[in-house]
Structures are given as C-alpha cells and as structure tokens.
Write a structure and sequence with these properties.
- There is one protein chain.
- 14% of the residues lie in helices and 33% in strands.
- The chain has 326 residues and is α/β, with parallel strands linked by helices.
- The chain has one domain (30-265).
- An 8-stranded parallel β-sheet has the order 4-7-10-13-16-18-21-24, with no helix packed on it.
- The chain is elongated and about 70 Å long.
C-alpha cells in the first residue's frame, strides 16, 4: 500500500499537467451560427460551441459569424477573457461577420482583450444613440477591421496593432454617423481608409492620439480614401527613428487631395513645435521635419543655420506672448 501511495503521488504532477493542457486547449470557444434579430450570444450560450454563456478562463472567436449585443439600453461587459472578430470575406465585404451593437439606448459595451482580425465593428441602431466601446484594449490584427456605423460609435479602449481600418459607407450623409477614436493610450500604427466621400466619417477626439511610423520617403501609415470626412481634434505622434533624412523627402500623412479634413484648436503634434502658421516642426536625426495641416504632408529639410535656430528657439516665447495678449 505504501508503494501504491508513492506511485500515485508521483503520477499526480503528470496528471495535473495533462489536465492543465486539456483545459488550455478547451479554453478556445467558437461561434457556430449567426445571432438572428432579437437574439444575442453576448451573454448567453446560444451560438457558442460549448453551449454556455461567455465566462472567465475562456477565449472566444466569432469564427465568421454575427455576434449581437443585447437589444436593450443597459451596459454590458463581455464575460470571457478575450474576444476575436474574424471573417473569411474581404475586409468589409460581409458586414455580418463581427460584432453588431443593437442596444435600444445610449450605452457602453465593455470587452477586454478585443481583437479584430478581418471582422467588422458595427453600430446598427440610429443617430440618436451613442455606442461606446470600452475595455483594456482593441487590437487590429493583420487582416484589419471594417467599421460600419448607423450612429455614433466611440472607442475609448486603447487601440493597438497595425492592420488596416476600413470605414465603410454608412448609408446616410448624417454627420452623426461617425467613428470616433478617443484614447490617449493608443499605439495603433496602421492606415485608416475612408471609402465614401460623404458617408465615411472619422473623428479623432481631443483626447485621442494616432501614431505614424515614418521610414524611407513615401513609406508610412496614413489616413486616406476615395473620399471621406476626417475631423482631427487630437494628437499625431510621429515615430522618426527610421525616417529618411534626405532634404525633400515627403510623407503624405493625411490624403488632403481626396479627403475633407479639419484640424481643431486642440490638435497638436507630440514633440513638435507649433510654428503658428498651421505647421509643426522638430529637429531629429540631423534633419528638420515639418508637418503641414494645409497639405497633410510631413517633409524633411536641412537643419537651419545657427542664427535661424536661435530665432526658432524664440518662436515659442513669441507665440506665448501673442497668445497672452489675446
């Protein structure tokens, strides 16, 4: 009997390891059908492969199906450890592959560790109701995220990743059909495409930030499209660590030839000096980099002569005096 006890104790760690491995494997739960109108798997086991409501310890994937939020005015938090929105269709080609907000009043849906990798984020109610998406992070994967809004959709989660974001035509010219980025903690470095001149709208809130990685001349992520409206009230952050230093190098950050863009009074470029004429500049890598609101372009030029540098150093003081006189 003593030997048997020793054997059982010896086998216990192996059995525990096997159990943990099995649990880890079983923790991935996929959707197996679309949520029909009036139904929701967000907080029920309706269309999950384990037939249980989302819960801690599990990771969830929409697997190309449609996940609806509950159709009432309450705030909800997703119960799983993570949620991934996926689709086998081209980005934005199937608007029923992803998360669809169907709340009956302005409300907040909180999803921690949310990833969009080909899936769609939709506000499918109306202009009078604000859908706020909260959580500890929204990652845009390599396959990107499509956005379709029938009313305001505000993302307060920090956005990360570098896959493309494609804002689809909303079906209306109503200015309230807008996709808003509001987190100051975002590190997203992908490109944002607006697909329609009057029905695709982006708002960078005054609390929001967009990051741009600048490389060889013309190599960068950007805001662009066949048309669209971009209201930029937040901050741009340029990563210039690998930026070309050749004078005349240029990077089109905002496609002003196609988009209708505006820069609000709270707009700024992190680490750049406000030149007071809708341009922002900084010295880095032995070159001068200047962003122009009028052209939407970042350009590189030679470092000014020492005398000019002295004048540039005084510019913020002059601007401060000028602002105070106002």
């Amino acid at each position: 009997m003593q030997r048997r006890g020793i054997v059982l104790r010896a086998l216990a760690p192996a059995a525990a390891a096997l159990s943990i491995g099995t649990a880890a494997h079983a923790a991935v739960v996929n959707m197996n059908g679309d949520d029909a109108l009036g139904t929701s798997s967000f907080n029920s086991g309706l269309h999950w492969s384990d037939a249980a409501a989302p819960s801690a310890g599990n990771q969830y994937d929409t697997a190309g199906f449609l996940l609806r939020t509950p159709a009432d005015g309450s705030n909800y938090t997703f119960g799983g450890d993570s949620l991934t929105l996926t689709s086998s269709a081209a980005l934005g080609a199937d608007l029923n592959d992803g998360l669809l907000y169907k709340g009956s009043a302005t409300s907040t849906i909180t999803i921690n560790n949310l990833t969009a990798n080909g899936g769609v984020l939709r506000q499918a109610n109306n202009e009078a109701q604000v859908f706020t998406l909260a959580g500890n992070g929204l990652t845009v994967g390599p396959n990107g995220m499509a956005v379709h809004v029938q009313g305001p959709l505000t993302v307060t989660s920090p956005v990360s990743g570098s896959g493309p974001i494609r804002i689809m035509a909303s079906g209306s010219n109503d200015v309230r059909r807008v996709f808003e980025l509001a987190s100051a903690a975002s590190t997203y470095t992908g490109s944002i495409e607006l697909t329609n001149a009057t029905q695709a709208r982006l708002h960078l809130a005054d609390t929001g930030v967009l990051d741009f990685v600048v490389g060889a001349s013309g190599t960068n992520n950007r805001i662009f499209g066949a048309g669209g409206v971009a209201a930029l009230d937040g901050k741009f952050d340029f990563n210039l660590s690998a930026a070309d230093t050749t004078p005349g190098s240029i990077w089109q950050i905002v496609d002003n030839a196609a988009l209708t863009e505006t820069y609000g009074p709270t707009f700024a470029v992190n680490g750049f000096t406000d030149n007071g004429n809708d341009t922002w500049s900084t010295l880095a890598n032995g070159a001068t980099y200047t962003f122009s609101e009028a052209t939407g372009a970042l350009t590189a030029s030679a470092v000014p002569e020492p005398a000019t540098l002295g004048l540039l150093a005084l510019a913020p003081l002059v601007l401060t005096v000028r602002h105070r006189r106002k």
